[in-house]
């Protein structure tokens, strides 16, 4: 092929937009590209011809295109068009009541009802249709999907939206499959609730996770045999969690309380995002982020994520030690290692609401170096190893102090 022929036939392929981007532009609905959304209930939508109802696409900056989000509203008494897609999606009901039918070409429909706070996932490539159960009020939900990488990988919309493959390993047409029944198990020392349908994530029990700080609790969630997953975190009045960092795409949806989050790449000044029930923030990959409760009731959020614990990680191989000290090679900033201004600012924010801090005093610093600034990472081999390292350090400091005392004598 000569250069002239290359310019005519091949060059346009090099310059083409990724398929996902082309698809987004063809939807002709608002596209949001921000760090956060202040209120999902107030986000402006426009008629969405391909889905029915109205909607908007969320390409929040922190997703790094490993996933995306969308908002859809179903007018009173109406329904959306039946759809199926070769990407996973998690659906959180922002407001309204309704029902969804799920089926594939070989099986009968399974229909279930949802309301505010419901979380569910139509299994990969099943047909799904959503109905508003109210004749008076609209119903609005948030979907988080793995569309960007999958559309860009296959580059064929017919394959993505008109594919008969049934994925019988993911869809069970049993009438119980979206009843809210599930099972709880432990994975990597964290409790996991596995179910295709959770009636109300505001009511799901959480379990203490003291390593993450603030007296908070959490539960992991796996739905519909997805690679994507979710979790809920809650932390009490007057507290804040430790900063940590991880991969892209965690849509942190506030489902209770008020407060703010700080987000920053190592070594840079934190950006602050104030939130309340209905806000969403997505921490970018490798950015530290930290959540603060400044309200009069516990703060709770739902994280909708690109990766889960049950199935193989589909994006990258980097594993973050999200609850282990960055000073010891992990990805969390312990309270004693953080910039003291972080706690001072939190106390000022609480005071504005007539509240006081309910945290234990900052622990004595074990490692002197401020590790919240850029620092080359060492590999964390195991939790035991980190603890052992810290103990050794403490011991050697104490030993040195005893030695110094003896020498004085
Ligand atoms: Fe996080």
3D architecture notes:
The protein is 18% helix and 28% strand. Strands 2, 12, 13, 15, 16, 17, 19, 22 and 24 form a nine-stranded mixed beta sheet that branches. It has 409 residues and is of the alpha+beta class. The model is unreliable at 370-376 and 380-396 (pLDDT under 50). The protein has two domains: 20-161, Sandwich (Jelly Rolls), CATH 2.60.120; 183-313 and 322-358, Jelly Rolls. The protein has seven helices and 25 strands. Fe (ii) ion is lined by residues 244, 246, 250, 283, 289. The site of fe (ii) ion has 5 residues, from loops.
Name the descriptors.
2 domains, alpha+beta, binds fe (ii) ion, 25 strands, Jelly Rolls, nine-stranded mixed sheet, globular, 7 helices, eight-stranded mixed sheet, 18% helix, 28% strand, single chain, 409 residues
Top CATH class of the largest domain = Mainly Beta
How many distinct helices? 7
Low-confidence stretches: 370-376, 380-396
> Which quaternary structure do these chains form?
single chain
Catalogue the ligands.
fe (ii) ion
Q: Give the overall average pLDDT.
A: 90
Count of individual domains: 2
The name of the CATH superfamily of the largest domain reads Jelly Rolls
- Can you tell me the CATH topology of the largest domain? Jelly Rolls
**How would you sum up the global shape?**
globular
In what range is the share of β-strand residues?
25-35%
């Amino acid at each position: 092929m000569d250069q002239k022929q290359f310019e005519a036939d091949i060059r346009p392929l090099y310059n083409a937009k990724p398929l996902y981007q082309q698809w987004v532009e063809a939807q002709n609905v608002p596209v949001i590209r921000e760090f956060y959304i202040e209120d999902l209930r107030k986000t402006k939508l426009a008629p969405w011809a391909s889905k029915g109802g109205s909607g908007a696409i969320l390409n929040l900056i922190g997703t790094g295109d490993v996933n995306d989000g969308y908002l859809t509203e179903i007018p009173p008494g109406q329904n959306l068009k039946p759809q199926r897609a070769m990407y996973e999606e998690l659906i959180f009901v922002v407001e309204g009541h309704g029902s969804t039918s799920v089926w594939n070409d070989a099986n009968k429909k399974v229909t279930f009802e949802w309301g505010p706070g419901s979380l569910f996932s139509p299994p990969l490539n099943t047909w799904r249709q959503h109905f508003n159960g109210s004749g008076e009020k609209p119903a609005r939900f948030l979907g988080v999907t793995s569309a960007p990488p999958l559309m860009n990988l296959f580059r064929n919309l017919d394959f993505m939206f008109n594919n008969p493959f049934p994925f019988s390993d993911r869809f069970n047409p049993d009438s119980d499959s979206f009843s809210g029944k599930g099972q709880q198990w432990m994975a990597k020392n964290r409790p996991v609730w596995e179910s295709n349908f959770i009636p109300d994530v505001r009511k799901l029990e959480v379990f203490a996770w003291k390593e993450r700080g603030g007296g908070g609790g959490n539960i992991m969630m796996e739905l519909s045999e997805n690679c994507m997953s979710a979790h809920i975190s809650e932390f009490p009045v007057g507290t804040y969690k430790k900063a940590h960092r991880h991969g892209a795409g965690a849509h942190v949806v506030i489902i209770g309380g008020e407060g703010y989050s700080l987000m920053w790449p190592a070594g840079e000044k934190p950006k602050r995002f104030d939130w309340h029930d209905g806000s969403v923030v997505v921490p970018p990959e490798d950015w530290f982020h930290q959540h603060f409760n400044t309200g009069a009731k516990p703060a709770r959020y739902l994280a909708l994520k690109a990766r889960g614990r049950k199935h193989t990680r589909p994006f990258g191989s980097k594993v973050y030690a999200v609850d282990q000290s960055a000073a010891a090679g992990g990805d969390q900033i312990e309270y004693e290692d953080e910039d003291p201004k972080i706690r001072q600012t939190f106390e000022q924010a609480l005071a504005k609401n007539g509240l006081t801090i309910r945290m234990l005093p900052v622990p004595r610093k074990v490692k002197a170096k401020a590790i919240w600034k850029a620092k080359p990472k060492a590999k964390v081999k195991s939790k035991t190893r980190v603890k052992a390292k810290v103990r050794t350090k403490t011991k050697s400091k104490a030993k040195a102090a005893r030695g110094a005392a003896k020498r004085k004598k």
